[in-house]
Amino acid sequence: xxxxxxxxxxxxxxxxxxxxxxxxxxxxxxxxxxxxxxxxxxxxxxxxxxxxxxxxxxxxxxxxxxxxxxxxxxxxxxxxxxxxxxxxxxxxxxxxxxxxxxxxxxxxxxxxxxxxxxxxxxxxxxxxxxxxxxxxxxxxxxxxxxxxxxxxxxxxxxxxxxxxxxxxxxxxxxxxxxxxxxxxxxxxxxxxxxxxxxxxxxxxxxxxxxxxxxxxxxxxxxxxxxxxxxxxxxxxxxxxxxxxxxxxxxxxxxxxxxxxxxxxxxxxxxxxxxxxxxxxxxxxxxxxxxxxxxxxxxxxxxxxxxxxxxxxxxxxxxxxxxxxxxxxxxxxxxxxxxxxxxxxxxxxxxxxxxxxxxxxxxxxxxxxxxxxxxxxxxxxxxxxxxxxxxxxxxxxxxxxxxxxxxxxxxxxxxxxxxxxxxxxxxxxxxxxxxxxxxxxxxxxxxxxxxxxxx
Length: 454
Prior knowledge:
- It is built from 20 helices and no strands.
- The protein is mainly α.
- The longest helix has about 35 residues, at about 290-320.
- The protein is globular.
């Protein structure tokens, strides 16, 4: 028996296709919303400090998009083969062993989504202050998480509408900002075509390190894999939504950095965290900060909505497989995994109250990269060990595209191990705790009985 067959035998095969109606458009909106957070609005200041070249900066963001696309092709193959909600939990269980899948699911179900939700909510509160100075950020942060969670509890139909509308509004505002920047903004002496010396920037250590942070901004390209079981015709819908969502974000990211450089003096951007506000002031004058703040607030609502949708699906699927977690698999009358949503809401609120979400995010970065690395490696493994498995979609550019993703992800993990060894070690401990909990669950008589029935 191959590892993939063992994984299939050990876990129940619920929700293996058919879905409950999530369209390609809505799934694409989830990908776009989950990817575009605050990263693209804060990274440029540190990149341009060490890479003072317009061409090199735009190439950096283009390379990040290409690497993300390499991941998209691999995840699309696995998602079409195993169309079940929950992302890496499902893929690693099938490609390797259920214990490996539980490890990834444990990280996602506990803090993997709750911490980014808390961070995005806190950023919403801070940016809202630029629009409404008298409003306190913490109540705003808690309020937006509760509002989005209530929408998710109403079911897939209302969640789809809310996600689509908020994401379209987000993209419209970004495009309006881009048009205004290029029309109203005063052109700076920056060159977007290659000039002498650009190759030196591209081959430099700052370019490689900059790619690490660019890839963090691109994280979320796999968002639709967490809701495969709710899609219409997932074998076709998943690859399309991942591809179109990543391409849209890639174009927006390159264009945003281009307009920041086009309309703002490099000296004002260098070393600044809030480059979007700096650029907004340069383009729109004194009201620029408020305009950018409002744009980012709307964008963060759609991001929080996407994470509050896809995150609970991991806990829901784990609840279907593990008797001790079965309560999280229960759905309300409108089809929402209510207990799983409330669980993620509770963890996100706890992180907001304790202000520990930034530390948690640093701790889980290594484990998230680790799981993505082995998920993409799973495509290569299954091509070798299970070549006869049906593959409704085959990764474009195989084996080059998965190898590109693996090389860049390996470099990012190496960077974290060398630059943030303590955080990386704690990340490994979180994963090991997942294995320990898995071992305890597997020793339970009811768990063994369930496994024997599947």
